[in-house]
Amino acid sequence: MIEVTGLTKRFGPKAAVDDLSFSVKKGEVLGFLGPNGAGKSTTMRMVTGFLPVTAGEISICDISMINNPQEAKRKIGYLPESAPLYNDMSVQGFLKFCASMRGLTGSARREAVAKSIETCFLESVYRQSVGTLSKGYRHRTCLAQSLLHDPEVLVLDEPTDGLDPNQKLEVRKLIKNLGKEKAILFSTHILEEVTAACTRAVIVDQGIIVADGTPKELEAQGGGSLYDLFHKVTTFETPAA
Amino acid sequence: MNMLTIFKRELTSYFTQPTAYAIVIVFGFLSSLLAFTLGQFWNVADASLNGSFFVYHPLLLMILVPAVSMRQWADEHYTGTIELLGTYPIKLRSAIIGKFLASAVVWALALALTFPMILTVNYLGDPDPWTIFSGYLGSFLVCLTFLAITTLVSSFTRDQVVALIVSVAICCLLTMIGWEPVINEVRRTGPETKEAVELMTRVGIFSHFFDATLGRISYASLIYLGGIISVCLLGTNLALKSQRA
Ligand SMILES: Nc1ncnc2c1ncn2[C@@H]1O[C@H](COP(=O)(O)OP(=O)(O)O)[C@@H](O)[C@H]1O
Ligand SMILES: [Mg+2]
């Protein structure tokens, strides 16, 4: 469902993403692992059509993101890294706005908003102003936004970042569940998440894929420990992100 | 469709925050204050309101319009919500126009709520409604022009204060360059500045504004102001797109 070939992004002379190729099929959760500054967010911004690519091809459900971005974007739900929200709106108001932007109206919109509020456990805050939410709720509100149109493809940039351990657990479970029906690409630098939620993972370093496999295979490559593998294949000091 | 959604969101946000109320009150207060003091409203018994009330609008608007709209795109960069807009299946231009129109409505309201001035004039004399309408039209055109400039400037930065300072500077320049005291000062330096004066009058906003308030707005003025507005909005589109490259 996500098909990426030869993806490259240069900022000036520096390649943030360098000739990356991977694919995510329906029912797969691909973990995108890597140290800070590895190019995870840049890759996701290109896959979701926010950043133009320097080179390469991206296809979402067989629709090219480069030639037909409008259609391709319809298929994707996206949680950006910083979980951006409009702070002057209520949770419900924000989700309603996002649903309208996705072309939902009337009862379809009402149901979509109610469903994503339920899925992301936002019942206790849905009337609250977004600006007053705690970090965990902000993240989940933005996650809810990505689920509104029940997309076939989900791109989640560090979805558990800044959550407390209980919330992390919930979100991992949620990702795993959603992954049964969708193609999910999610980035993290927390290694436990790979075993907890992914069907497959790639490790990216300085814009290049340096390891690829199921969590079990990766552990085997690292001699039984994902940590050792991660340490071995990634550079310690990446340029400031 | 998306344009309407964004328009509604923006308009609501002006009213759920203090912005719209502040602007209506401050503009109403300052514009009447100027009319009664500098404009000598009582003494001249200016029933058209042109010489005492509308004439000061550009001077207020060159500061107030950027203040209201500085966050239009700067905030979108700062909070990162531009990443949401940029990944939804919408055209960027519908977001730009939606936001622009929402601010325009707030200004239309701020202008409309100066109606006590009109009531006062009606009480004092017998004004021509058409002249007063022209006055408002002129002010609104100036609003739209400054608004478009602020939109463009705010698309370049994530810092609202920078957006404010730069757009106030541009709007000030555009206003001052054609302001009578400034023009007179330049004219005084000698006859050889005749062409410069001519140019300043044309480029400055006041000559176009006065034409409009006097109900004789020319095609040239409409093209000039409309041109500034279109160029700024198109520029916003380009700026927002190229920043991602
Ligand atoms: N807009 C940009 N301009 C210049 N360099 C950028 C920009 N965005 C990201 N980078 C650089 O690209 C590299 C990858 O960044 P990023 O994709 O955010 O990494 P990650 O998400 O894996 O931490 C970093 O070195 C970062 O400094
Ligand atoms: Mg990142």
**Which band does the percent of strand residues of chain B land in?**
under 5%
Bound molecules: adenosine-5'-diphosphate, magnesium ion
Coarse morphology of chain B: globular
Q: Specify the overall morphology of chain A.
A: globular
Instruction: Specify the structural class of chain B.
Output: mainly alpha
Rg result of chain B: 19 Å
Question: H/E order of the elements of chain B?
Answer: HHHHHHHHHHHHHH
What is the number of strand segments of chain A?
10
Helix content of chain B: over 70%
List keywords for this structure.
heterodimer, A: 241 residues, alpha/beta, four-stranded antiparallel sheet, B: 245 residues, mainly alpha, binds adenosine-5'-diphosphate, binds magnesium ion
Notes on the protein architecture:
The complex is a heterodimer of chains A (241) and B (245). Chain A is 36% helix and 25% strand. With 241 residues, chain A is α/β, with parallel strands linked by helices. In chain A, the strands form 2 sheets. In chain A, strands 6-7-8-3-9-10 form a 6-stranded mixed beta sheet, with helices on both faces. Chain A has a 4-stranded antiparallel beta sheet with strand order 2-1-4-5. In chain A, helix 3 crosses helix 4 and helix 4 (106-119) crosses helix 5. The model of chain A has no long low-confidence stretch (mean pLDDT 91). Chain B has one domain. The longest helix of chain B is centred in the middle third of the chain and has 26 residues, at 129-154. The model of chain B has no long low-confidence stretch (mean pLDDT 90). At the A-B interface, helix 2 and helix 3 of A face helix 1 and helix 6 of B. The complex binds adenosine-5'-diphosphate and magnesium ion (MG). Magnesium ion binds at residues 40-41, 81, 157 of chain A. Residues 40-41, 81, 157 of chain A line the site of magnesium ion.
